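Help needed: design a sequence for this.
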């Protein structure tokens, strides 16, 4: 480069032309090499780019399959967490969530709704005599019957064991609940065939209305449960509306039960024997035992 620089500075005009011609030739050669290199770069870039696209498509497809499987597993886990495994009905958690939403709508719109606590009569004896498999099949059959007779807007939930809870949303009036309940109980007053056996099933139901009988899910379910026990006391195979006096009665019964338990633990009970005397002979013919509670 120094020599060329000297020649450019000191050389003749011809020498300058020769050097310029040589440089022009080399410049063309460089351009050809550069174009060839660019072509190779484009070629290799396209080749590797094609491989990358193929790899990316395969990776995207695999990722999409993984995401679909993850979504399915998530949906299944959410369904299992909110539904009963045996009947497929909403469980207690989902029921309480929907009930809270229905209560909120009731407050906004001024509508009334109802919670029905539904207990099958004598179901324990069916389990004891015929086994839990038969009992489970009967529960599924009953749940199907109830679901077919319900409105789409209502919720049928398996609360546990042989207990169901029904959320009836937006009733026109309390009297409409009588029609709904007769319709529901009607599907139970029939025979169910499980295998070679037939079962006649009845139920006792308690009904609590919102917002009249409670403004939260826990209170409403508890009051409907209390009314259900009242229906059982009245002979079963019927329904009862919740009344405040029912709670007072239940509280009194629970209080006596707890006090009796404490009395037994605290030796507050004492037995007295009272003789039975024959009025004619004035002879003692027996005795009756009296249990006195000192508290």
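Sure. Designed sequence:
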């Amino acid at each position: 480069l120094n020599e060329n620089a000297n020649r450019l500075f000191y050389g003749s005009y011809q020498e300058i032309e020769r050097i310029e011609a040589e440089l022009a030739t080399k410049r063309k050669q460089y351009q050809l090499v550069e174009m060839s290199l660019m072509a190779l770069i484009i070629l290799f870039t396209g080749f590797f780019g094609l491989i990358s696209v193929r790899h990316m498509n395969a990776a995207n497809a695999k990722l999409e399959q993984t995401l679909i499987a993850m979504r399915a597993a998530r949906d299944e886990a959410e369904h299992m967490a909110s539904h009963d495994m045996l009947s497929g009905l909403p469980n207690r958690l989902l029921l309480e969530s929907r009930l809270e939403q229905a209560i909120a709508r009731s407050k906004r719109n001024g509508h009334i709704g109802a919670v029905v606590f539904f207990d099958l009569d004598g179901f324990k004896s069916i389990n004891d005599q015929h086994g839990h498999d038969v009992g489970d099949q009967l529960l599924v059959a009953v749940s199907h019957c109830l679901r077919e007779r319900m409105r789409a807007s209502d919720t049928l939930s398996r609360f546990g064991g042989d207990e169901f809870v029904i959320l009836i949303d937006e009733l026109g009036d309390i009297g409409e609940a009588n029609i709904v309940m007769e319709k529901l109980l009607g599907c139970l007053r029939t025979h169910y065939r499980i295998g070679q056996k037939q079962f006649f099933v009845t139920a006792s139901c308690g009904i609590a209305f919102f917002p009249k009988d409670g403004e939260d899910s826990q209170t409403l379910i508890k009051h409907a449960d209390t009314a259900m026990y009242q229906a059982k006391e009245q002979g079963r195979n019927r329904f009862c509306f919740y009344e405040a006096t029912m709670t007072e009665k239940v509280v009194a019964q629970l209080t006596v039960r707890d006090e009796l338990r404490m009395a037994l633990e605290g030796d507050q009970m004492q037995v007295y024997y009272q003789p039975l005397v024959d009025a004619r002979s004035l002879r003692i013919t027996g005795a009756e035992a009296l249990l006195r509670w000192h508290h």
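The beta strands are 112-120, 155-160, 163-171, 191-194, 197-200, 203-210, 239-241, 269-277, 284-293.
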